[in-house]
Each structure stands twice: as C-alpha cells, then as structure tokens.
Amino acid sequence: MPIEMQHEPTVVERAEQAYVGITEPVTMTTFAKVADRFPEVFGHVAARGSQPAAAPFFRYWVIDMMRELVVEAGVPVAAPIDGAGDIRAGVLPAGRYLTVTHTGHPDELIDVTTAFLRWADEHDLVFAVQPSPEGDRWACRLELLLTNPAEVPEMKDWQTQLLFKLA
Questions:
Q1: Is the pLDDT higher at 9 or at 134?
Q2: Best CA proximity match to 143, nearest among 159, 129, 127
Q3: What is the pTM of this model?
Q4: Which candidate, 41, 46, 68, 83, has a CA 20 to 30 Å from the CA of 123?
Q5: What CATH number is given to the structural domain containing 78?
Q6: In a domain, 31, yes or no
Q7: Is position 33 within any domain?
Q8: What domain range is 159 assigned to?
C-alpha cells in the first residue's frame, strides 16, 4: 500500500539562500553516490571557517526516473563562500514554494512525493519546471534532511521536508 502524506502541504515564501554543493548524475539504484558526497561538502565549508546555516539538502536539477537524475548534495551557508574542484557555490532562488514534512524511512519519499505532486495538481498549483529531452528541469526542488542520522539512528524516525518552487 502506498505511503500518503502525513500533513497537508502549505505554501511558504523563501528568501534566496547561499549554498555550496556537489552535483552528481545518478539513477535510482546509484542514488547513494550523491549522498556519499556530503562529507566533502561539510569539509569544504569547515575548511573555510564557516558552518552550515540550515539543514543539508538534495536538490533535484533534472529528473528522468527511467534513465538518469541530476542531483546535488548541498549545504546552506550564512554568507557566500567559494567553490573548489567538484564543489560549486550557488544560490537557492527566492520565491513561493509548496512544502510538506514527512517523518519516516527515506524509501517512503517516492510515494510521499507522488502524493505531494497529485495534491498540487488537485489544487491547481504549478511548479517551476520545464520538460526537456533529458528529463524535467526544476527551478528548485529540494529534500531538506532535517534529521541527523548520528542522533537518530532509526531511519523510520527521520524527518525530511520537501520544498518545490512554484511557477
């Protein structure tokens, strides 16, 4: 039975947010490759005398569920810092976002995202996304990782916030 959303989504306004991250093309079976890059991002931030300003995130740039996804492991920072090597600096765009928070195993997020997208469609909300031959290109589609696995080892208790930019 598919997992449904635990709460009704809400629309929020977000200011732009500086961040650094590593972008990685992955498939659904190799997704861990991008997650495994978080230590590099955290190390980059620490080496520059800074620290994360908010929860780390996955940013989905391009999604083609049957072929490849272009995903970024990122960390918001209070003030812009330079990128280096594979790590790039960027800015998450300001604007209206549809959001919902889920508590549960990360594997449940596919079903939760499906319900989230369906809810948006039922409420005539349009996301900032453009179809392309490579897949859907998102202006900003985030999964904020609100739980620190070192503090909460039970994956069924992890919290993740979905934030998708509206058109």
A1: 9
A2: 159
A3: 0.93
A4: 68
A5: 3.20.80.10
A6: yes
A7: yes
A8: 10-165
How does pLDDT run across 81-122, given as a tens digit for each residue? 999 999 999 999 999 999 999 999 999 999 999 999 999 999
In-domain check, residue 3: no
Under 8 Å between Cβ of 140 and 93: yes
Domain-embedded: residue 111:
yes
Cβ neighbour number for residue 167 with a 10 Å cutoff: 11
HEC readout, 80-131? CCCCECCEEEEEECCEEEEEEEEECCHHHHHHHHHHHHHHHHHCCCCECEEC
Q: How many domains does the chain have?
A: 1
- In angstroms, rounded to a whole number, what is the distance separating the alpha carbons of residues 63 and 134? 8
- What separation in angstroms does the CA of 115 have from each of 5, 47, 93, 118? 6, 40, 24, 5
At 67 the pLDDT is 85
Question: How many CB atoms sit inside 10 A of residue 46's CB?
Answer: 11
Mean pLDDT of 26-44: 94
Q: Which amino acid, one-letter code, is at 153?
A: P
**Which of left, alpha, beta for 37 (phi over 0: left; psi -120 to 50: alpha)?**
alpha
